[in-house]
Amino acid sequence: MQRQLNLRHEGTHFDLHAIFDDLNHRYFRGRLRGYEVLWGRRRRHRPRENFVFGTIQEQDRVIRINPALDQPFVPTWFLRYVLYHEMLHSVVPDQTLSGNRRRVHTDEFNRREREFPQYRRARRWEEENLSRFLR
Ligand SMILES: [Zn+2]
Questions:
Q1: Average pLDDT of the segment spanning 17-42
Q2: What pTM did the predictor assign?
């Protein structure tokens, strides 16, 4: 039962598939194919720091969104921004730095992220509300 719930894309408040499809169509010309978008595993405790909103595993084509975002106080445009950010990773290549280090938030990535219409609003909301996701 637990496992089934973990794999679902429909939360109580948001349906990730619907948002993914809309963003994919609107901003990526439908370029992201074969991706699964899921709510991640629910944690028993909120983290003390470093709340991770979402992740993308490009090899497996899986995007996971932190289920703590499936709450009524989270604006739809914020969740859309989180998803947009992860989706953008699939189209903007990483940079390899010296010592085999990688940079994922490149200048190009940051530029395209700012093109998201609610970018500033979303970043401000993140700053103002981050503490609600932490212990
Ligand atoms: Zn990122």
A1: 96
A2: 0.90
